[in-house]
């Protein structure tokens, strides 16, 4: 089940109201690969609470003079380390409970 923080249900207008960032600036951050909204069937951008928090962090860094390329590098590094940490934890749990990979994917092991 997806956490409420990760559900992409907030429109760009509401994000603008919550963050004070212009819709143009929010779109710019998307163009630069810093944020990835979902799209409705009609193409409307949809954001999550986590996206809003990330936008605020991006805006703070930009105010400090940090370039978007550096922000993107930091975001990717954090995602990579989180993914690696999650994989390591999953491996430790699987080893502790003697779970084979095929069991983890929902299939029974031989």
From TrEMBL:
> Which superkingdom?
Bacteria
In Pfam terms, one family for this protein is MerR_1
Does ATP-binding show up as a keyword for this record?
no
Q: Can the keyword Transcription regulation be found in this entry's annotation?
A: yes
Keywords, A to Z? DNA-binding, Repressor, Transcription, Transcription regulation
Which InterPro entries does the UniProt entry name for this protein? DNA-bd_dom_put_sf, MerR-type_HTH_dom, MerR_fam
SMART domains noted in UniProt: HTH_MERR
- The UniProt record lists the HTH merR-type domain at 9-77
Cross-referenced PANTHER family: HTH-TYPE TRANSCRIPTIONAL REGULATOR TNRA, REDOX-CYCLING DRUG-SENSING TRANSCRIPTIONAL ACTIVATOR SOXR
Protein name stated in the entry: MerR family transcriptional regulator
**What organism is this sequence from?**
Virgibacillus sediminis
């Amino acid at each position: 089940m997806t956490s409420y923080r990760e559900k992409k249900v907030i429109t760009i207008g509401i994000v603008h109201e919550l963050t004070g960032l212009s819709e143009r600036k929010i779109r710019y951050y998307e163009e630069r690969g810093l944020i990835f909204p979902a799209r409705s069937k009609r193409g409307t951008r949809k954001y999550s609470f986590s996206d809003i928090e990330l936008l605020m962090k991006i805006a703070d860094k930009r105010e400090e003079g940090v370039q978007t390329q550096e922000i993107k590098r930091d975001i990717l590094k954090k995602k990579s380390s989180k993914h690696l940490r999650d994989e390591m934890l999953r491996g430790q749990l699987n080893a502790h409970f003697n779970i084979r990979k095929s069991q983890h994917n929902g299939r029974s092991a031989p």
